[in-house]
């Protein structure tokens, strides 16, 4: 921790460790605790990945989302892996998010806040601590920042050195993201080039048509003497689930300008459905950091729980501070969401409401693949917009698991991926992701919903 220039308010530093005495879920059992101590101490001295000023800027952007003046697009892997942090994969994912953002910006005439589930999405909550295969029981895979996916005792052992490797992998990923989004690649005049290299299909064609319109508009504005500075770059924010406390705590530092604690591992972190116990460690810890934060809400969430989460996580009612990410399931969202929206509407709280149409819609096929139907994903997003229309609140964004590669992990879409096709390119170690085409299709659908509101 660097020497603070301003003084830190009494109790702040102690408070950052209060979670240690509270009930905690979903943490690994590290075999070598001495090594863990060395690793967390090393991590606490490594440079921050993001800066307080950027984090505050995101809070400001999210405040605009909360008040219905912008829309959040949050997307990326279910679980990033160390091996897949390659230039090609990162570029394809950034391209996909940029393409979706273009479709949304154009279709809705609304600013889009762009955020990756990237550069730190390495830790996974699991439904069971162990996994059994053919009579052999080993610790469950908890993400590359904890242990390996291979089903051997050595690989499945929680290894503290992986935490430092997670930091460095996040750093190089974020470095490339910053280069892509600031260095000319994301220039709106490159709108056609982001579509190159992807197989031809109806969604791509539709994108090409839209890109031509944008091109023509830009050329017209150029001829009219407009200044294009804002077209050259995008603000792109990094986010992940704030789960592994031995990563999140050492990455949390006191800002020398304000004396406030910031989690410097990402601009935005969210608390998962499995770790959002009101009296638990995660809620306590994340209530104390200054980043904008999210909470996942599943179908069992009650209006009372929503109000209590607001009181604990956003007691000062800071615009943009708190985002609720709902993951209800296509079949229940139209019933489950409106009471939660009603509970907050008309109060002094103004959270951002985001739809995660992925996690409530998982199925397993008879041939053993964990998948989701694209139609269910679309249905949940549609239900999300309907629920907000009924209550009179603003549908602030979507949170999706996607990849820029042409994988076959979700069923359906215009390429009509069926159960037999899943086997051809199923690469995810965790949840099934929308591929490039399905992501574009979803963006077109959301743009149409937003155009009605804007
Ligand atoms: N800077 C603007 C924005 O972020 C315009 C822009 C530039 C843009 N490149 C983009 C929008 C790529 C979407 C995608 O909105
Ligand atoms: Mn997932």
Structural write-up:
With 454 residues, the protein is of the alpha/beta class. The chain has one domain: Aldolase class I (TIM Barrel, Alpha-Beta Barrel). The protein has helices at 12-15, 33-45, 52-66, 87-108, 153-156, 161-182, 202-223, 245-248, 281-287, 303-313, 333-344, 374-391, 419-422, 436-453, and strands spanning 71-76, 112-117, 130-133, 136-139, 236-241, 252-254, 261-263, 268-271, 293-297, 322-326, 352-355, 362-364, 370-372, 397-401. The strands form 4 sheets. It has an 8-stranded parallel β-barrel with strand order 1-2-5-8-9-10-11-14, surrounded by 5 helices. The chain has a two-stranded antiparallel sheet with strand order 3-4. Strands 6-7 form a two-stranded antiparallel sheet. Strand 3 (130-133) and strand 4 form a beta hairpin. The model has no long low-confidence stretch (mean pLDDT 96). Manganese (II) ion is lined by residues 78, 359, 401, 430-431.
Features:
454 residues, alpha/beta, TIM Barrel, eight-stranded parallel beta barrel, 14 helices, globular, binds tryptophan, binds manganese (II) ion
């Amino acid at each position: 921790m660097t020497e603070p220039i301003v003084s830190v308010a009494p109790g702040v530093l102690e408070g950052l460790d209060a979670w240690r005495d509270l009930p905690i879920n979903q943490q690994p059992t590290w075999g070598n605790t001495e090594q863990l101590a060395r690793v967390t101490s090393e991590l606490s001295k490594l440079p921050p990945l993001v800066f307080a000023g950027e984090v505050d800027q995101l809070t400001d952007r999210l405040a605009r989302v909360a008040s219905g003046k912008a829309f959040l697009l949050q997307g990326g892997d279910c679980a990033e892996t160390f091996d897949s942090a390659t230039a090609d994969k990162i570029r394809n994912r950034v391209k996909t998010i940029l393409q979706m953002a273009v479709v949304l910006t154009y279709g809705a005439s609304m600013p889009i806040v762009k955020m990756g589930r990237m550069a730190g999405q390495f830790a996974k909550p699991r439904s069971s601590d162990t996994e059994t295969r053919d009579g052999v029981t080993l610790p469950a895979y908890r993400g590359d920042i904890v242990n390996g996916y291979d089903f051997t005792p050595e690989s499945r052992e929680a290894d503290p050195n992986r935490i430092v490797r997670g930091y460095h992998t996040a750093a190089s990923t974020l470095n490339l993201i910053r280069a892509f989004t600031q260095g000319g690649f994301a220039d709106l005049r490159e709108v056609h080039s982001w579509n190159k290299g992807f197989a031809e299909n109806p969604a791509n064609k539709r994108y090409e048509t839209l890109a031509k319109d944008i091109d023509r508009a830009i050329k017209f504005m150029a001829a009219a003497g407009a200044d294009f500075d804002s077209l050259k770059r995008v603000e792109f924010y990094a986010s992940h689930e704030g789960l592994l406390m031995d990563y999140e705590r050492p990455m949390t530092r006191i800002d020398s300008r304000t004396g406030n604690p910031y989690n410097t591992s990402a601009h935005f972190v969210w608390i998962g459905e499995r770790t959002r116990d009101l009296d638990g460690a995660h809620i306590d810890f994340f209530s104390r950091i200054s980043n904008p934060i999210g909470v996942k809400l599943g179908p069992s969430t009650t209006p009372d729980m929503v109000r209590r989460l607001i009181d604990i996580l956003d007691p000062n009612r800071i615009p943009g501070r708190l985002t609720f990410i709902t993951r209800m399931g296509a079949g229940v969202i139209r019933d489950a969401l409106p009471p939660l929206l009603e509970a907050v509407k008309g109060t002094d709280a103004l959270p951002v409401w985001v739809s995660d149409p992925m996690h409530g819609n998982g199925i397993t096929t008879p041939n053993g693949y964990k998948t989701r139907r694209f139609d269910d994903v679309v249905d949940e997003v549609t239900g999300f917009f309907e629920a907000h229309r009924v209550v009179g609140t603003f549908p602030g964004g979507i949170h999706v698991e996607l990849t820029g590669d042409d994988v076959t992990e979700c069923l359906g879409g215009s390429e009509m991926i069926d159960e037999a096709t899943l086997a051809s390119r199923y690469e995810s170690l965790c949840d099934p992701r929308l591929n490039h085409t399905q992501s574009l299709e979803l963006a077109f659908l959301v743009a149409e919903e937003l155009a009605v509101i804007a």
